[in-house]
Each structure stands twice: as C-alpha cells, then as structure tokens.
Design a protein that fits this description.
The chain is of the alpha/beta class. It has one domain: NAD(P)-binding Rossmann-like Domain (Rossmann fold). Helices cover about 35% and strands about 20% of the residues. It contains nine helices and 15 strands. The strands form five sheets. Strands 2-1-3-4-8-13 form a six-stranded mixed β-sheet, sandwiched between helices. A three-stranded antiparallel β-sheet has the order 6-5-7, with no helix packed on it. α2 links the parallel β3 and β4.
C-alpha cells in the first residue's frame, strides 16, 4: 500500500475477506494494488466455493472498505483467462469465436478449434483488450467478476481502476508442488523431483510467458495510469512474443539437465488452445514494455 507520506514496505499477513483488518490498514492510503487471489485452473467443481469466496467476495470486501476510507485508486491483478479462447480467423468467414472444445474432439486428439460456421481450421491472431469476455473455468469467471465489481465501485465512488490482465506469469518464488500453480511452476516442480514434465494435449498450444519482474514494473506504471474518474481501464501485460507450452517445458528441462518433456495427449476441459496478447495499449498508455526475454527468463526460473 502507498500513502501520502511514501511507501510502507512492511508486510502484514491477513485475509482479504477480513473487513476489520482492512479498516485498520486503509486509513491514509492513496492506492491499493490488489494481488490476492486463489489462482490456477483448479481440480474440480469442489473448488467453486473457494474461488467465489476468495476472489469475488474478497474483492467485494476490499472495495467496500476502500469506499469507507476514501481510497480512490485501485490497481487490480486481472488475467487473460477472462477472454476464454483467443482470437481466430477463418479463411471463408473472417473473425470468428469458436465455442468450447468438445470432449469427443479432445479424446480424439483434435485439439485445434474449428470455425463454428463451416468446421474448417482457423488461424490464431493476437487478442486486444476490447475483445469480448468468455471465461471457460471457475478461476476465469471469478477474475471477470472482480473486474465487474471494481467497475461498479469506480462508478459509485468516482474512483479509478487500472486492470492489468496478466498473461502467463513465471519467475522466482512461484509456489511449488500444487495443482493451483501455473504450468511453468508445475513443470519446474516435476523436474526438481527428477520427473519428466507432463505436457498436455500435443504441446503446441500457444501462450505468452511474461516474467514476474516485468509484471512488477507494470504494476508500478499502473499506479499513475491515465484512467478517468469513475472508470476502469484494462491493459494486457504480456511479452508480445508467444511460445508453445512444449517449448517452455523443453527450455526448463534443458537448463536443469532433466528428463525431456513427455507429451501425454491428456487435456483439461477448462483449458483453451491459444491465447496470444497484443501489448500495444500497455506500451502506448503505460510506457510498459517487457524487458526479460524468454530464453533469459526461463534459464533463471529453471534454477530459482
């Protein structure tokens, strides 16, 4: 938290759903950077209450406390998962939005989305911030709900919200040995245990991997983001250089000298095939551009 007298670099562990704690912390604060969340795709539908409690209810409690104490600016850790499948184009029908991939297709190893009008193959394209939201799992739904709640708070109070839609963040101090971590952390945990990383589908699904230090820089830039009073403005926080999940697994394995990744053909229904961002708005409006390249970042992460 940042107050009028400068930065408070002290730490205090608390639950974002605890209004009493927030009432003690927020007086004199100018801006809140909201990172607290339950992350990851989850295990099964039993996780739904926790995603709703931490991500949705927790954000509502925070926003209500901010309103009580006159805090006027929020930097929200949002996510690219709210887009669902990325942007696609059909040779015959132009830009289209494929629906969720069917269990039958996934079981048969048909991982690529097809045109919903003609059934032909599609070309992926970069997705921009004005793309419609289409969350495909509980985590994605909860992150979109956070944006909606924050936008409601901004309209009611005249506050400003900078929503940073993180793409696949990786880097030091990521959680280990948990299914709720990102795919990079899961692969690193497997390699640390001497196991080959298990790569789902065919390993060719595209993601934009962005280093956590670049994400930290984006948060600093967002503290003074050009957001009018009463509004929410969103930015993709991404490197702008996509890589496949298989490439990422191979880079980590090579750096650690571990076993080569094993492509399993397994799938998760909540996963999307390709999601690649355009970082142009963040560069133009926040002055943010990712600095840590894929090769350098993965070498560091593999050894962290």
């Amino acid at each position: 938290m940042c107050g009028a007298d400068g930065w408070d670099v002290g730490g205090r562990r608390a639950d974002v759903r605890d209004a009493d704690v927030l009432d003690r912390l927020l007086p004199g604060v100018d801006v809140v950077v909201h990172q607290a969340a339950k992350v990851g795709l989850g295990v099964d539908v039993a996780d739904l209450p926790e995603y709703a409690s931490v991500n949705v209810y927790g954000t509502a409690v925070l926003l209500a406390a901010m309103a009580r104490h006159g805090v006027g600016r929020l930097v929200l850790a949002s996510s690219m998962v709210i887009y669902g499948e990325g942007r696609y184009a059909c040779a015959a029908h132009g830009q289209v939005r494929p629906g969720p991939r069917s269990v039958h297709d996934l079981e048969q190893g048909r991982f690529e989305p097809v045109c919903p009008r003609c059934g032909e193959s599609l070309r992926w394209a970069v997705i921009e911030e004005d793309a419609p939201a289409d969350p495909r799992n509980a985590y994605a739904t909860s992150k979109l709900a956070q944006e909606h709640l924050a936008a409601n708070w901004a309209r009611e109070t005249g506050g400003r919200v900078a929503a940073l839609r993180y793409h696949n963040v990786y880097g030091p101090r990521m959680p280990r040995d948990t299914p709720y971590a990102g795919v990079a952390a899961i692969f690193r945990s497997e390699l640390a245990a001497g196991r080959a990383p298990r790569v789902f589908e065919d390993g060719r699904q595209l993601r934009d991997f962005v280093h956590v230090r670049d994400v930290a820089r984006a948060n600093l830039a967002a503290l003074s983001a050009p957001v009018p009073p009463g509004e929410l403005r969103a930015w993709n926080i991404a490197s702008g250089t996509p890589h496949t999940v298989g490439e990422m697994a191979q880079a980590l394995a090579a750096e650690r000298g571990g076993p080569s990744p094993r492509v399993t053909g397994e799938y998760r229904l909540g996963d999307v095939r390709h999601i690649v961002a355009s970082p142009r708005r963040a560069e133009a409006e926040l002055g943010f551009r990712a600095e840590i390249g894929f090769e350098v970042g993965m070498k560091e992460f593999a050894r962290s």
